Amino acid sequence: MRSLRTAVALGAAVAGIMGLAAGTAMLGQVAQASVSTSSLDGIVRATLDEETLDGWNPATSGLYINWSMVDPTQVNFTDHSTSRHDAQTDLRDLDDMLRYQQQHPSDTSQQAGIARLSPVTAKEFHKSSSSSGWVYWELLDLAGLSGDSAWSDDAVSMATHYSKAIDARVGYSHGKVTASTDPHAATCADGYRVDGQLELGAMLMDAGKRFGNAMWSAQGARAHSVVRAAAFDSSYGLYDRIICNGARWDQQAKVEEIADEARTAILTGRYTQNTSLTSDGLALLDTLVSNHAGLHDDLNGGWCPLIDMGTGVLDCHIKTSRQFLLLRILHEVDRTDPGRYLAQENELIDLVPRVVTSPHPGHLYERATDFSLYRGENWITTESDGIVVGAIQSVLADSSSGGGTTTTTTSSTTSDGTTSSSSSTTTTTASSTTTSTTATTTSGTTSSSSSTTTTSTSGCPATTTTTTGTASGTSQSVFVTASGDTLCATLTWSGGAVLNLIVYDHTGSTVLDQVTTGVSPESLRIASTAGTVYKVKVKPVSGSATYTLVTAA
After folding, report:
1. CA–CA distance from 492 to each of 176, 406, 496, 499 (Å)?
2. Which parts of the chain register pLDDT below 70?
3. Distance between CA atoms of 338 and 266, rounded to whole angstroms?
4. Is the CB of residue 174 less than 8 Å from the CB of residue 190?
5. pLDDT score at 162
6. How much is the pLDDT for 448?
7. 117 with 100: CB under 8 angstroms?
8. CA 367 to CA 109: how far, in whole Å?
9. Do the beta carbons of residue 299 and residue 475 sit within 8 Å?
10. How far is the C-alpha of 162 from the C-alpha of 168, rounded, in Å?
11. Three-class SS of residue 427?
12. C-alpha span between 324 and 302 (Å, rounded)
């Protein structure tokens, strides 16, 4: 454990982070969003540092379940047993550390935590047979973030296991199900968790295309279809929670499960070009936003944990950190459908400084409805840290080092002596990126021009988009929608800079290809899927440069 002096200093730093930093970019276009990207980034760093300093459990070579935000020597509430461990929280937190390192390549603060957590997590998920569908996407993320293909192998193992577990007579896997982790919880002898089967079905559809297995694709589509027919409550527009012996047994709709159901459907639908699946996921989010079920707390903000659709009883006696699973998917949709959920995204962003703890920074599993402490509970949990930090970093990935405005102006003189200039301005916040290009002649006339042109670059699509900017400590990204089976990106720059050109998949997080070089120009070409959105990033490694990025999709 660190000294009291260090704890007080870190607590003071978090207090400063929670305030608004002068001169920094504000988030989004909705009035209630008031948190700067630098403040969010500081909260991420402080939370991860706290995990490294006080969260490590030498008895399990992993992270504690929880520890006191006041006295971190008090661990694993309520029985204080150091033998308890949750591998899935380790997975999320390792992802968060690696993502922070990727977004801050010159910051070495997470290297010790990564080195310590990677071996045990890799062992825990080697040849994974996890029944939690969302784990599959975490494994793919880790493969991209770490560059270690073993994580992809584990994702394949997970798909293989579920494929074999499916009962071909009904189209899904089933067995004994317990309503909760409470030792006295009711048990169903033969049933299934709806969110689990929907996510695992989506996993097989994704894996079927990603790894070239048509049987998986067919199994996944059938599982999703059969479970949807059995568990979708059309009166609420949400899914029941547990089906037992073919009947609706637990009709609770939980916000965190809705978020995961929506995210896996949207990501898989977009990747496999299954518009019906994408629409299903978006419909779940639309239902939440309409507040038909009353899950949004209009008085205090945030989201109530659940509603029992069988009785109509809403449970809002607490708020949990799991509501931040919504932030990640809301932002991912807003990335490609700007403004659709911007108000809800910004409300959750605004909650972050209110829920980070002090003096030891982190996130509690539950709080009172107004976000004060609930019954005096003050336990930082690694699950909550992983969820909240993961959501924040998804937002920060599109604003890189804190947002702001970058303007590049070039001037030229024509043969008749007329001087003209063109200015490309990119304004970035944590919720949106807007690029505008203007051209001005000496007469003062200003006109808008499109950055999309048609070319005949050999082997690449004819339609290109040109983006200009200055790479100097700030990464910049563009999102392009593929029109065919090839996507090309060409980067040219002046100056003695070393730049990193990266192409990500439709999630904006998994690296498909990248190159780092100090020699201009440099190009990447990847196989793409028509209609799929890809993220192309220019990230400075050293030096600064004015660059031009041409994407052909």
Report:
1. 59, 18, 12, 10
2. 1-33, 399-459, 495-496
3. 15
4. yes
5. 97
6. 30
7. no
8. 30
9. no
10. 12
11. strand
12. 9
- Please give the Cα distance from 370 to 364 (Å, whole number): 14
Cβ contact 270:262 at 8 Å: no
Distance, in Å, from the CA atom of 283 to the CA atom of 299, rounded to the nearest integer, reads 24
Residue 70 makes CB contacts below 8 A (sequence gap 6+) with 359, 360, 378
Half-sphere exposure in the Cβ direction for 520 (13 Å, CA): 14
Cα dihedral value 348, 354, 360, 363, nearest 10: -40
Q: What Rg value do the Cα atoms of the chain yield, rounded?
A: 24
Burial of residue 456 (CB within 10 Å: 0-12, 13-18, 19+) is exposed
Transcribe 295-314 into DSSP letters.
Answer: -B-TTT-SB-SEEETTTTEE
Identify the residue whose tokens are 């599993």. 365
**pLDDT for 495:** 67
CA atoms within 13 A on the CB side of 103: 26
Instruction: Compute φ and ψ for 527, nearest 5 degrees.
Output: -75, 130
Q: Per the structure block, which two tokens stand in for 49?
A: 């540092």
Compute the Cα dihedral for 25, 496, 100, 501 and give only its sign.
positive
The answer for residues whose C-beta is within 8 angstroms of residue 182's C-beta and 6 or more apart is none
**Are 221 and 205 within 8 A, CB to CB?**
yes
Q: CA–CA distance from 214 to each of 64, 205, 207, 227, 499 (Å)?
A: 41, 9, 9, 20, 39
Which residue, 437, 434, 432, 453, is CA-closest to 553? 453
Dihedral angle, C-alpha 139, 145, 146, 151, nearest 10 °: 20
Half-sphere exposure of 441 (CA within 13 A, CB side): 7
Tell how far CA 503 is from the center of its chain: 17
Cα–Cα distance for residue pair 406/489, rounded to 1 Å: 21
> How far is 163 from 18, CA to CA, in rounded Å?
46
DSSP H or E stretch at residue 523 = strand 522-527
Q: How far apart are CA 100 and CA 389, in angstroms?
A: 10
CB of 477 closer than 8 Å to CB of 535: yes
Residue 498 and residue 542 in contact, taking contact as beta carbons nearer than 8 Å: yes
Contact 223, 201 (CB under 8 A): yes
What are the start-end ranges of the H helices in 337-420? 342-355, 382-396
Reference 472, options 548, 400, 549, 542; nearest CA is 542
Residue that has been written with the tokens 């040219």 in this structure:
492
Token pair 């498909």: residue:
512
The helix (H) or strand (E) run that includes residue 438 is strand 433-441
E strand spans, 17-122: 56-57, 62-63, 66-68
Q: What gap in Å lies between CA 478 and CA 502, rounded to an integer?
A: 11
Which alpha helices (DSSP H) does 166-213 contain, by range?
A: 194-210
Q: Which pLDDT score is estimated for 463?
A: 78
Q: What is the pLDDT of residue 459?
A: 67
The Cα 250–Cα 2 span in angstroms is 45
